[in-house]
Design brief:
Elements lengths: L2 E5 L5 E5 L4 H10 L7 E3 L6 H12 L3 E4 L4 E4 L10 H4 L9 H8 L1 E5 L12 H9 L3 E5 L2 E5 L8 E3 L5 H11 L4 E6 L5 H12 L3 E3 L5 E6 L6 E3 L5 H13 L3 E5 L7 H9 L3 E4 L3 E5 L9 E2 L11 H9 L3 E6 L9 H7 L3 E5 L2 E6 L7 E3 L3 H13 L3 E5 L2 H4 L5 H7 L3 E5 L2
Parallel strand pairs: 2-14, 3-13, 9-10, 17-18, 21-22
Antiparallel strand pairs: 1-22, 1-23, 3-5, 4-5, 6-8, 7-8, 10-12, 11-12, 14-16, 15-16, 18-20, 19-20
Helix pairs in contact: 1-2, 1-7, 4-6, 5-6, 6-7, 8-10, 8-12, 10-12, 11-12
The structure holds uridine-diphosphate-N-acetylglucosamine (UD1).
The site of uridine-diphosphate-N-acetylglucosamine has 23 residues, from helix 1, helix 5 and helix 6.
């Protein structure tokens, strides 16, 4: 297993190209299975979660052609079959194949997902949404078995909470349901709107994506399509923290200010400056870091996927920060590792109190999940001396070439290959 060696204390300066959003790419790969015509995606990030999702699409029979700039998925000859649990257990997002397969073939068998160890993460809302469209669903031997022999029918789907994944499942399935589907209390994340843009290019009729009420008219007459996905706002937010934590200045090309409003607000409270540039955003810090209070919320609130990174920033800020996690119940796995680097963090349930300002010192640490791992990279950049981060495969799931992107901006970082 690869490790990262980082010597901290340097100031980062330069330009980072923000890749396409992983969380936009994964549902779009699943959506390709709805249509018998090819879908060309031109901004897929080179990360292992995307590789795995494409591998699962291939197991269903899709032909995937990938080069540096574009990926074409041709699902003309796929079949709705069961794929081995080993392939899907690593990634929760593989549950996103359920809706498209059921919608196209009237039946689907998909493993209950595994994925990041950040809590129970059930899929009840995905299942309820499909049942509302007329599917019969049972859980058998760890599989979700869904059928709708007469096809899906448009209906009003009321989501109990604005789940990103359940909204995407409902949206994809609704494109093949006969008549109008209304999704109420839909997630408003930019990745949901980007999925709707992709489905629209493929021929679907969708209104209201990006708001809490989405309308879909089905069934769709599919056509060959091309879609350029949005930039990764979580990657952009992570490099923004890298600039702020090292007192540096980074231009984040492709980053979109409108998708990062809540994040930019916190960055500014904490003492960083953020300004738009022709190509994206510039994040810099000259003065001292200040504490801030953060509560994670569904979009447009502060994203849970940036909570660990901002907790690391809070460790380096003078004063006490309060951080509350409201989306996932077990998303503080980075805390013991940050404490090993010298952080002062007290946990109480879903709330963390960070007493910042103590100097972080390099140590051996263990990556545990995707966002927890990257918070350790950020801590290591700010820490005195050498940090070794073990199990970096977690990072490779969602960050494209993080070591070379950071090295280009002056970080002392090296990948130790096993
Ligand atoms: C997506 C993102 C993930 C991000 C999360 C919240 C992808 C591939 N992943 O995950 O990076 O952290 O949104 O912004 O896009 N829940 C249920 N039942 C369900 C579905 C969800 O109880 O059927 C719960 C979850 O356990 C969690 C909350 O709802 O507590 C939010 O989950 P959801 O928005 O669905 O997240 P994901 O789509 O899994």
């Amino acid at each position: 297993m690869d490790r990262l060696r980082i010597v901290g204390g340097g100031r980062l300066q330069g330009t980072v190209t923000i890749a396409g959003a992983k969380n936009a790419a994964l549902p779009q790969i699943a959506a390709a299975l709805l249509s018998p015509h090819p879908l060309e995606l031109t901004n897929l990030p080179q990360v292992s979660d995307v590789d795995n999702m494409l591998s699962v699409a291939r197991l269903y029979g899709a032909r995937v052609e990938r080069n540096a700039h574009s990926t074409t998925i041709d699902a003309g000859d796929i079949v709705s079959r069961e794929v081995s649990y080993d392939t899907v257990r690593r990634m929760r997002a593989t549950v996103l194949f359920l809706g498209p397969l059921l919608a196209r073939f009237g039946e689907a068998r998909v493993s209950l997902p595994g994925g990041c160890a950040i809590g129970a993460r059930p899929v009840d809302m995905h299942i309820d949404a499909l049942a509302t469209l007329g599917a019969e669903i049972v859980i058998e031997n760890g599989l979700i078995v869904a059928s709708a022999r007469g096809g899906l029918k448009g209906a009003r789907i009321l989501l109990g909470a604005p789940s990103v994944g359940a909204t995407e499942t409902a949206l994809m399935a609704a494109t093949m349901a006969v008549g109008e589907t209304e999704i109420v209390n839909a997630a408003r994340e930019p990745e949901v709107a980007d999925l709707a843009a992709c489905l629209t290019a493929m021929g679907a009729e969708i209104e209201g994506a990006g708001t809490h009420r989405i309308l879909v008219q089905g069934p769709t007459g599919w056509q060959p399509a091309k879609h350029h996905g949005i930039a990764d706002r979580v990657e952009a937010g992570t490099y923004a923290v890298a600039a702020a934590i090292t007192g540096g200045e980074l231009e984040l090309t492709n980053a979109r200010i409108e998708n990062l409003a809540a994040v930019i607000q916190v960055l500014e409270i904490m003492g960083a400056s953020v300004r738009p540039s022709n190509r994206g955003l510039v994040v810099a810090r000259g003065g001292p870091l200040r504490a801030a209070d953060i509560v994670t919320e569904p979009y447009p609130g502060f994203p849970t996927d940036l909570q660990a990174q901002f907790m690391t920033l809070a460790c380096c800020a003078a004063g006490t920060s309060h951080i509350r996690e409201t989306i996932f119940e077990n998303r503080f796995m980075h805390v013991p590792e940050l404490v090993r680097l010298g952080a002062d963090i007290a946990l109480q349930g879903t709330a963390a109190t960070v007493r910042g300002g103590a100097a972080l010192k390099g140590a051996q640490v263990m990556a545990t999940d995707l966002r927890a791992s990257v918070s350790l990279v950020l801590a290591a950049l700010a820490a005195e001396g050498e940090t070794i981060i073990n199990r970096v495969y977690h990072l490779d799931r969602g960050y494209e070439q993080i070591d070379s992107k950071l090295a280009q901006c002056g970080a002392e970082i090296e990948r130790l290959r096993d």
